Amino acid sequence: MRWEAQLVNPPDASAALADGTLPLELPLDLPSQTAGTGPLAGSVVRTFDTPEFRGVTFYEVRAKSVLNRVPAASQVPFEWTVNPYRGCTHACRYCFARKTHSYLDLDTGRGFDTQVVVKVNAAEVLRRELAAPRWERPHVAMGTNTDPYQRAEGRYKLMPGIISALAESGTGFSILTKGTLIARDLPLLAKAAAGAGAGANLSIGFLDREIWRSVEPGTPSPQARLRVCGQLSDAAGLNCGVLLAPVLPYLTDSDESIDATAAAIARAGARQLTGIALHLRPGAREWFMAWLSREHPELVQRYRRLYRGGTYADADYRAELSSRIHAAAQRHGLNRRNDTPGRWTGQAPEPPPPAQPEQLTLM
Known about the structure:
Blueprint: H1 13-18, E1 32-34, E2 44-47, E3 57-61, E4 67-69, E5 80-82, E6 85-86, H2 110-114, E7 115-119, H3 122-130, E8 140-142, H4 152-156, H5 159-168, E9 173-177, H6 186-194, E10 198-203, H7 209-215, H8 222-234, E11 241-247, H9 255-268, E12 272-277, H10 284-295, H11 300-306, H12 315-331
Parallel strand pairs: 3-7, 5-8, 8-9, 9-10, 10-11, 11-12
Antiparallel strand pairs: 1-2, 2-3, 4-5, 6-7
Helix pairs in contact: 3-5, 5-6, 8-9, 9-12
Protein backbone atom coordinates (compact mmCIF):
# COMPACT_ATOMS: atom_id res chain seq x y z
CA MET A 1 0.00 0.00 0.00
CA ARG A 2 1.30 3.46 -0.92
CA TRP A 3 0.64 4.89 2.54
CA GLU A 4 2.27 1.99 4.39
CA ALA A 5 5.42 2.48 2.32
CA GLN A 6 5.77 5.99 3.79
CA LEU A 7 5.59 5.00 7.47
CA VAL A 8 8.49 4.19 9.74
CA ASN A 9 6.68 4.39 13.07
CA PRO A 10 8.53 3.43 16.23
CA PRO A 11 7.26 0.28 17.96
CA ASP A 12 5.82 2.15 20.92
CA ALA A 13 4.83 5.58 22.13
CA SER A 14 7.79 5.96 24.46
CA ALA A 15 10.21 5.62 21.54
CA ALA A 16 8.43 8.41 19.70
CA LEU A 17 8.69 10.72 22.69
CA ALA A 18 12.28 9.85 23.55
CA ASP A 19 13.80 11.12 20.32
CA GLY A 20 12.43 14.61 20.93
CA THR A 21 11.03 15.09 17.44
CA LEU A 22 7.37 15.59 18.32
CA PRO A 23 6.73 19.35 17.87
CA LEU A 24 4.22 19.42 20.68
CA GLU A 25 4.25 20.37 24.36
CA LEU A 26 1.61 18.33 26.14
CA PRO A 27 0.08 18.59 29.61
CA LEU A 28 0.94 15.44 31.53
CA ASP A 29 -2.66 14.38 32.02
CA LEU A 30 -3.55 14.16 28.34
CA PRO A 31 -4.11 10.57 27.17
CA SER A 32 -1.94 8.85 24.61
CA GLN A 33 -1.57 5.27 23.47
CA THR A 34 -0.05 3.29 20.64
CA ALA A 35 -2.12 2.00 17.74
CA GLY A 36 -1.67 -1.75 17.62
CA THR A 37 -2.76 -3.07 14.23
CA GLY A 38 -3.51 -2.03 10.67
CA PRO A 39 -1.86 0.65 8.49
CA LEU A 40 -1.40 2.94 11.51
CA ALA A 41 0.24 0.34 13.75
CA GLY A 42 2.84 1.96 15.99
CA SER A 43 1.50 5.49 15.68
CA VAL A 44 1.04 7.59 18.81
CA VAL A 45 -2.65 8.19 19.44
CA ARG A 46 -3.57 11.42 21.25
CA THR A 47 -6.66 13.34 22.27
CA PHE A 48 -6.74 16.88 23.65
CA ASP A 49 -9.34 18.06 26.14
CA THR A 50 -9.68 21.54 24.67
CA PRO A 51 -12.77 23.03 23.01
CA GLU A 52 -11.25 23.21 19.52
CA PHE A 53 -10.12 19.56 19.56
CA ARG A 54 -12.73 17.88 21.72
CA GLY A 55 -13.81 14.64 20.05
CA VAL A 56 -10.82 14.60 17.68
CA THR A 57 -8.20 11.83 17.70
CA PHE A 58 -4.70 12.42 16.31
CA TYR A 59 -2.49 9.62 14.99
CA GLU A 60 1.10 10.86 15.14
CA VAL A 61 3.16 8.95 12.58
CA ARG A 62 6.77 9.13 11.50
CA ALA A 63 7.08 9.10 7.72
CA LYS A 64 10.04 7.98 5.67
CA SER A 65 8.82 9.97 2.64
CA VAL A 66 6.63 13.05 2.25
CA LEU A 67 7.14 13.96 -1.41
CA ASN A 68 4.40 12.25 -3.39
CA ARG A 69 4.63 11.78 -7.14
CA VAL A 70 1.28 12.38 -8.82
CA PRO A 71 0.16 9.68 -11.28
CA ALA A 72 0.17 10.92 -14.87
CA ALA A 73 -3.47 9.90 -15.24
CA SER A 74 -4.51 12.53 -12.66
CA GLN A 75 -4.54 15.35 -15.28
CA VAL A 76 -3.27 18.03 -12.90
CA PRO A 77 -0.62 20.66 -13.75
CA PHE A 78 1.95 19.47 -11.21
CA GLU A 79 3.93 16.31 -10.58
CA TRP A 80 4.64 16.47 -6.86
CA THR A 81 2.68 17.11 -3.68
CA VAL A 82 3.27 17.32 0.06
CA ASN A 83 0.46 16.49 2.48
CA PRO A 84 1.43 16.69 6.16
CA TYR A 85 -2.05 15.64 7.34
CA ARG A 86 -4.62 13.00 6.45
CA GLY A 87 -8.20 13.63 7.53
CA CYS A 88 -9.44 17.16 8.15
CA THR A 89 -11.32 18.96 10.90
CA HIS A 90 -12.77 21.36 8.33
CA ALA A 91 -15.45 18.65 8.01
CA CYS A 92 -16.58 19.81 4.57
CA ARG A 93 -19.48 17.56 3.56
CA TYR A 94 -18.23 17.35 -0.02
CA CYS A 95 -14.46 16.82 0.53
CA PHE A 96 -13.11 14.71 -2.34
CA ALA A 97 -10.34 13.28 -0.12
CA ARG A 98 -12.72 11.31 2.11
CA LYS A 99 -12.13 8.10 0.19
CA THR A 100 -8.44 8.14 1.12
CA HIS A 101 -9.31 7.50 4.78
CA SER A 102 -10.53 4.03 3.83
CA TYR A 103 -6.95 3.19 2.78
CA LEU A 104 -6.02 3.54 6.45
CA ASP A 105 -8.95 1.40 7.63
CA LEU A 106 -10.62 4.56 8.95
CA ASP A 107 -14.18 5.79 8.42
CA THR A 108 -14.72 8.18 5.47
CA GLY A 109 -17.63 10.02 7.07
CA ARG A 110 -17.44 11.29 10.63
CA GLY A 111 -14.09 9.52 11.02
CA PHE A 112 -12.52 11.67 8.29
CA ASP A 113 -13.54 14.78 10.27
CA THR A 114 -12.35 13.54 13.67
CA GLN A 115 -9.44 11.13 13.07
CA VAL A 116 -6.46 13.08 11.77
CA VAL A 117 -3.13 11.52 10.81
CA VAL A 118 -0.15 13.81 11.47
CA LYS A 119 3.29 13.28 9.89
CA VAL A 120 5.21 14.78 12.80
CA ASN A 121 8.59 14.57 11.08
CA ALA A 122 7.42 15.98 7.73
CA ALA A 123 9.83 18.94 7.54
CA GLU A 124 12.84 16.86 8.56
CA VAL A 125 12.12 14.18 5.95
CA LEU A 126 11.34 16.75 3.27
CA ARG A 127 14.71 18.45 3.73
CA ARG A 128 16.45 15.13 3.20
CA GLU A 129 14.44 14.37 0.06
CA LEU A 130 15.00 17.84 -1.43
CA ALA A 131 18.75 17.47 -0.92
CA ALA A 132 18.92 14.33 -3.07
CA PRO A 133 20.97 14.84 -6.27
CA ARG A 134 18.12 13.50 -8.39
CA TRP A 135 15.73 16.25 -7.20
CA GLU A 136 15.40 18.73 -10.08
CA ARG A 137 13.20 21.25 -8.21
CA PRO A 138 9.86 20.87 -10.03
CA HIS A 139 6.84 22.70 -8.65
CA VAL A 140 5.27 21.23 -5.49
CA ALA A 141 1.57 21.65 -4.69
CA MET A 142 0.10 21.61 -1.20
CA GLY A 143 -3.54 21.38 -0.20
CA THR A 144 -4.09 18.66 -2.78
CA ASN A 145 -5.57 16.11 -0.39
CA THR A 146 -6.42 17.73 2.92
CA ASP A 147 -5.88 21.29 4.08
CA PRO A 148 -2.38 21.98 5.45
CA TYR A 149 -3.80 24.89 7.45
CA GLN A 150 -6.62 23.06 9.17
CA ARG A 151 -6.93 23.58 12.94
CA ALA A 152 -4.38 20.85 13.73
CA GLU A 153 -1.65 23.01 12.18
CA GLY A 154 -2.11 25.52 15.00
CA ARG A 155 -0.87 22.87 17.43
CA TYR A 156 1.63 20.89 15.38
CA LYS A 157 3.19 23.79 13.43
CA LEU A 158 4.46 21.68 10.53
CA MET A 159 4.08 24.21 7.71
CA PRO A 160 6.84 26.69 8.69
CA GLY A 161 9.41 23.94 8.44
CA ILE A 162 7.94 22.67 5.17
CA ILE A 163 7.88 26.15 3.58
CA SER A 164 11.44 26.84 4.70
CA ALA A 165 12.68 23.52 3.35
CA LEU A 166 11.14 24.14 -0.07
CA ALA A 167 12.30 27.75 -0.29
CA GLU A 168 15.87 27.02 0.81
CA SER A 169 16.15 24.23 -1.75
CA GLY A 170 15.05 26.53 -4.56
CA THR A 171 11.80 24.65 -5.10
CA GLY A 172 8.74 26.70 -6.05
CA PHE A 173 5.40 25.75 -4.54
CA SER A 174 1.73 26.64 -4.27
CA ILE A 175 -0.77 26.30 -1.45
CA LEU A 176 -4.54 25.94 -1.60
CA THR A 177 -6.35 26.44 1.69
CA LYS A 178 -9.53 27.40 3.48
CA GLY A 179 -7.50 28.08 6.63
CA THR A 180 -6.83 31.60 7.88
CA LEU A 181 -3.84 30.24 9.79
CA ILE A 182 -1.80 30.75 6.62
CA ALA A 183 -1.50 34.40 7.71
CA ARG A 184 0.82 33.26 10.51
CA ASP A 185 3.41 32.32 7.88
CA LEU A 186 3.32 35.56 5.86
CA PRO A 187 7.03 36.38 6.42
CA LEU A 188 8.09 32.91 5.24
CA LEU A 189 5.79 33.07 2.22
CA ALA A 190 7.03 36.53 1.25
CA LYS A 191 10.63 35.30 1.37
CA ALA A 192 9.75 32.24 -0.71
CA ALA A 193 7.84 34.33 -3.27
CA ALA A 194 10.90 36.54 -3.76
CA GLY A 195 13.08 33.49 -4.31
CA ALA A 196 12.12 30.31 -6.12
CA GLY A 197 8.47 31.38 -6.20
CA ALA A 198 5.37 30.75 -4.14
CA GLY A 199 1.67 30.96 -4.90
CA ALA A 200 -1.32 30.98 -2.58
CA ASN A 201 -4.96 30.36 -3.38
CA LEU A 202 -7.93 30.59 -1.04
CA SER A 203 -10.95 28.38 -1.55
CA ILE A 204 -14.15 30.43 -1.24
CA GLY A 205 -17.19 29.01 -2.98
CA PHE A 206 -19.89 31.35 -1.69
CA LEU A 207 -20.68 34.01 0.93
CA ASP A 208 -23.92 32.61 2.40
CA ARG A 209 -23.22 32.13 6.11
CA GLU A 210 -26.10 29.73 6.70
CA ILE A 211 -24.88 27.35 3.99
CA TRP A 212 -21.29 27.79 5.20
CA ARG A 213 -22.18 26.73 8.74
CA SER A 214 -24.01 23.69 7.42
CA VAL A 215 -21.73 22.42 4.67
CA GLU A 216 -18.27 23.59 5.89
CA PRO A 217 -18.78 23.58 9.68
CA GLY A 218 -15.12 23.40 10.70
CA THR A 219 -13.76 26.13 8.43
CA PRO A 220 -13.19 29.85 9.02
CA SER A 221 -16.00 31.95 7.56
CA PRO A 222 -15.85 33.04 3.91
CA GLN A 223 -15.46 36.62 5.13
CA ALA A 224 -12.43 35.68 7.25
CA ARG A 225 -10.86 33.93 4.27
CA LEU A 226 -11.38 37.05 2.15
CA ARG A 227 -9.49 39.14 4.71
CA VAL A 228 -6.57 36.72 4.57
CA CYS A 229 -6.54 36.92 0.78
CA GLY A 230 -5.97 40.65 1.09
CA GLN A 231 -3.11 40.07 3.54
CA LEU A 232 -1.43 37.62 1.19
CA SER A 233 -1.59 40.07 -1.70
CA ASP A 234 -0.48 43.11 0.32
CA ALA A 235 1.94 41.88 2.96
CA ALA A 236 3.48 38.84 1.30
CA GLY A 237 3.52 40.13 -2.27
CA LEU A 238 1.82 36.98 -3.47
CA ASN A 239 -0.47 37.09 -6.45
CA CYS A 240 -3.30 35.59 -4.42
CA GLY A 241 -6.02 33.81 -6.33
CA VAL A 242 -9.35 32.39 -5.30
CA LEU A 243 -10.91 29.09 -6.24
CA LEU A 244 -14.65 29.73 -6.31
CA ALA A 245 -15.42 26.17 -5.40
CA PRO A 246 -17.28 24.17 -5.01
CA VAL A 247 -20.29 25.86 -6.55
CA LEU A 248 -23.22 23.88 -5.16
CA PRO A 249 -25.91 23.30 -7.79
CA TYR A 250 -29.27 24.90 -6.94
CA LEU A 251 -27.83 26.27 -3.66
CA THR A 252 -25.00 28.68 -4.53
CA ASP A 253 -25.10 28.78 -8.34
CA SER A 254 -27.47 31.70 -8.89
CA ASP A 255 -26.24 34.74 -10.80
CA GLU A 256 -26.69 36.79 -7.62
CA SER A 257 -24.54 34.46 -5.52
CA ILE A 258 -21.77 34.19 -8.11
CA ASP A 259 -21.67 37.94 -8.77
CA ALA A 260 -21.67 38.85 -5.07
CA THR A 261 -18.87 36.39 -4.38
CA ALA A 262 -16.78 37.61 -7.33
CA ALA A 263 -17.27 41.23 -6.22
CA ALA A 264 -16.15 40.43 -2.67
CA ILE A 265 -13.13 38.52 -3.99
CA ALA A 266 -12.08 41.50 -6.12
CA ARG A 267 -12.52 43.93 -3.20
CA ALA A 268 -10.34 41.68 -1.05
CA GLY A 269 -7.41 42.17 -3.42
CA ALA A 270 -7.37 38.86 -5.27
CA ARG A 271 -6.11 38.85 -8.85
CA GLN A 272 -7.33 35.55 -10.20
CA LEU A 273 -10.66 33.74 -9.95
CA THR A 274 -11.30 30.19 -11.08
CA GLY A 275 -14.63 28.46 -10.53
CA ILE A 276 -15.69 24.88 -10.57
CA ALA A 277 -18.88 22.94 -9.87
CA LEU A 278 -19.16 20.43 -7.07
CA HIS A 279 -17.46 17.09 -7.70
CA LEU A 280 -19.00 14.03 -6.05
CA ARG A 281 -16.38 11.30 -5.97
CA PRO A 282 -16.93 7.96 -4.22
CA GLY A 283 -16.67 8.44 -0.47
CA ALA A 284 -17.64 12.11 -0.69
CA ARG A 285 -20.77 11.38 -2.72
CA GLU A 286 -22.39 9.25 -0.02
CA TRP A 287 -21.58 11.69 2.79
CA PHE A 288 -22.74 14.75 0.85
CA MET A 289 -25.95 13.12 -0.34
CA ALA A 290 -26.79 12.10 3.24
CA TRP A 291 -26.39 15.77 4.24
CA LEU A 292 -28.50 16.90 1.28
CA SER A 293 -31.26 14.43 2.23
CA ARG A 294 -31.39 15.91 5.73
CA GLU A 295 -31.06 19.60 4.89
CA HIS A 296 -32.52 19.93 1.38
CA PRO A 297 -34.57 16.81 0.60
CA GLU A 298 -36.34 18.63 -2.23
CA LEU A 299 -33.05 18.68 -4.18
CA VAL A 300 -32.13 15.01 -3.93
CA GLN A 301 -33.74 13.90 -7.19
CA ARG A 302 -32.36 16.90 -9.07
CA TYR A 303 -28.85 16.01 -7.88
CA ARG A 304 -29.31 12.39 -8.90
CA ARG A 305 -30.23 13.51 -12.39
CA LEU A 306 -27.44 16.09 -12.59
CA TYR A 307 -24.78 13.59 -11.41
CA ARG A 308 -26.19 10.54 -13.13
CA GLY A 309 -22.88 10.11 -14.97
CA GLY A 310 -20.80 9.78 -11.83
CA THR A 311 -18.35 12.26 -10.31
CA TYR A 312 -19.13 15.31 -12.45
CA ALA A 313 -22.25 17.33 -13.05
CA ASP A 314 -23.82 17.21 -16.50
CA ALA A 315 -21.51 18.67 -19.17
CA ASP A 316 -24.04 21.28 -20.30
CA TYR A 317 -24.49 22.48 -16.73
CA ARG A 318 -20.73 22.78 -16.25
CA ALA A 319 -20.25 24.71 -19.47
CA GLU A 320 -23.03 27.17 -18.64
CA LEU A 321 -21.71 27.64 -15.09
CA SER A 322 -18.17 28.24 -16.32
CA SER A 323 -19.41 30.91 -18.70
CA ARG A 324 -21.26 32.75 -15.93
CA ILE A 325 -18.27 32.62 -13.57
CA HIS A 326 -15.98 33.93 -16.30
CA ALA A 327 -18.38 36.81 -17.01
CA ALA A 328 -18.57 37.71 -13.30
CA ALA A 329 -14.78 37.69 -13.03
CA GLN A 330 -14.52 40.02 -16.02
CA ARG A 331 -17.13 42.40 -14.61
CA HIS A 332 -15.10 42.81 -11.43
CA GLY A 333 -11.68 43.20 -13.02
CA LEU A 334 -10.32 39.75 -12.24
CA ASN A 335 -8.17 37.49 -14.47
CA ARG A 336 -6.45 40.35 -16.30
CA ARG A 337 -3.76 39.33 -18.74
CA ASN A 338 -0.90 41.00 -16.85
CA ASP A 339 -1.71 39.11 -13.63
CA THR A 340 0.24 35.91 -13.16
CA PRO A 341 -1.80 33.18 -11.49
CA GLY A 342 -0.54 31.55 -8.31
CA ARG A 343 0.23 28.40 -10.30
CA TRP A 344 -2.26 25.81 -9.17
CA THR A 345 -5.85 26.50 -8.08
CA GLY A 346 -6.49 23.21 -6.42
CA GLN A 347 -8.56 21.05 -8.73
CA ALA A 348 -7.99 18.99 -11.81
CA PRO A 349 -9.25 20.62 -15.02
CA GLU A 350 -12.86 20.01 -15.82
CA PRO A 351 -13.11 16.96 -18.10
CA PRO A 352 -14.22 17.60 -21.68
CA PRO A 353 -17.84 16.71 -22.44
CA PRO A 354 -17.85 12.97 -23.14
CA ALA A 355 -19.49 11.38 -26.12
CA GLN A 356 -21.57 9.26 -23.78
CA PRO A 357 -22.31 11.04 -20.48
CA GLU A 358 -22.97 7.79 -18.67
CA GLN A 359 -19.33 6.80 -19.15
CA LEU A 360 -17.68 9.72 -17.35
CA THR A 361 -14.30 8.67 -16.02
CA LEU A 362 -13.83 8.85 -12.26
CA MET A 363 -10.67 10.69 -11.22
